[in-house]
Amino acid sequence: MEKELKNINFTVIENGIQIPITTRHGSYPNLMYLLKEELQLESFGECGGVGRCATCVVKTSGITGNSAVKDRNEPATLSKLGFNEANIRLSCQIYITADLNGAEIKILEI
């Protein structure tokens, strides 16, 4: 029996505008790709998702589970820019899972 895919709903804030997003688990490799494609963001995610360029920095609220944990290159990259807050993230390091349901993602300008 195939597992039913449920919608994942969250809000993105870009330039003060709230944008509701509905997607499904795994529909994009990560949040950076979703934001880049859905919002047509220029100069966003320039390193292609390896967690080194910090052109996909977001402020998060309401992310749960494993998605709330910084991993790989993310802490070092953010620290170099002076970001040490737990809720400042690289969107390329956040996967599209149910952990995003109900979250708020604010795109930061660097």
UniProtKB/TrEMBL annotation:
GO terms for molecular function: iron-sulfur cluster binding. It comes from the Bacteria. It holds the Pfam family Fer2. Residues 35-97 form the 2Fe-2S ferredoxin-type domain. This is Ferredoxin, 2Fe-2S. It comes from Flavobacterium glycines. The lineage of its organism: Bacteria, Pseudomonadati, Bacteroidota, Flavobacteriia, Flavobacteriales.
